Amino acid sequence: MTSDNDLLFHYTDAGGLLGILSPGPMHSSWGGEIELGGSLNLRASDVRYLNDTTEVRYGAKVVAKILRNKSKSTDISDVERHGLLQLADELKNDEITIDWWTHRSPVAVHAACFTESGDLLSQWQGYGDNGGGYAIGVTRDALQYSLVSLPGNPMFRGLQLKKVCYGNGQKTKSLVANLIETLTGEENVLDKGELSDTARRDAIMTAAQIKHPAFKSEREWRLITDTSGNWFNEFRPTSQGLIPYVDYIVNPTPTTTPLHPSDLASDDGPAPRPPTIGKVVVGPGGDRKLRMDAVSRLLRRFGHNPDCVVQSDVPYRA
Fold first, then answer.
1. 219-251: string of b/e by CB count within 10 Å (b at 16+)?
2. pLDDT in tens, 18-50
3. What pLDDT score does 264 carry?
4. Could you give the count of Cα atoms lying within 13 Å of 189 in the half-sphere of its Cβ?
5. CA 134/CA 12 separation, integer angstroms
6. Best-predicted range by mean pLDDT among 31-40, 50-59, 181-190, 286-295?
7. Residue 307 burial (CB count, 10 A)
8. 31, 158, 161, 255: which has the highest count of C-beta atoms within 10 A?
9. What is the pLDDT of residues 43-66, one digit of tens each?
10. pLDDT over 90 percentage in the chain
């Protein structure tokens, strides 16, 4: 069985598990059929609709403050200083918009969320149906083969696996320092005298990787991308109202048509895919043996290893 160090876990309930493991048919934008056996389908919600009520806004304020401090530095040009201050203002005031082909709209950051721990009580209570759910351990190697479907037209575009930073400590400052490094240089900050949309997108994606320190115990990782806030979204109903999302397909297997750029690197055909799932943990709810049996059969049906199912060790009476 795959080591937990090589996995990231996504907690869900029985309905979520069924939807994630049984993606529907899909066709490549290149015209070829995509065989989805052994892959996963994840709904990546707009992060503003997640359970942290300060989502993005908290990170945006942290990034804006650091950008303002950098603007006081004597080792940057006046043009760079102006760009950093404008970007800080747009972040703080929630005014990040960019051009999407023929229109301008806000940037929506979407995320599928994972954690480093596959058997954590708080995760079972918050995301795993109060112990009646499942933690899907996805291999980190498989996550590099992910695409986003905008609706019905899958493509590889800007998916990034990122570890979340909490608060404004050293890890957060290092993250924003990396952003500043990409922004410095007038050609990177400005486009024809205006703040570039690339700078705006990089800044909001950075803000989406920073959360309030109250969530630190979640040890979260995110598979993130950005879309137009006005287009390209699907919607799902919840008790809190409608939530915009996009579909991610993790580790799809191409058949007759190359799907990922690495598939073109060899005359021998598509590059071999790593296994998608390394472990599924059955939560500490009732009927564990029956639930384990059903999950094992489900995994076998959809092309995954049926022998990677284990029970939770948490002594919780759900």
1. bbbbbbbbbbbeebbeeeeeeeeebbbbbbbbb
2. 999 986 656 555 455 555 667 899 999 999 888
3. 41
4. 22
5. 6
6. 286-295
7. 10
8. 161
9. 999 998 888 888 889 999 999 999
10. 50
Tell which residue, 87, 30, 23, 62, has the closest CA to residue 259.
30
Write down the residue that tokens 């989502």 correspond to: 55
Q: Hey, what are 269's tokens?
A: 């055909």
pLDDT in tens, 217-272: 999 999 998 887 777 788 989 888 999 998 888 887 655 455 554 544 445 555 66
Contact call for residues 41 and 17 (beta carbons, < 8 A):
no
Q: Are 280 and 137 in contact (CB under 8 A)?
A: yes
Furthest-apart CA atoms within the chain: distance in Å:
67
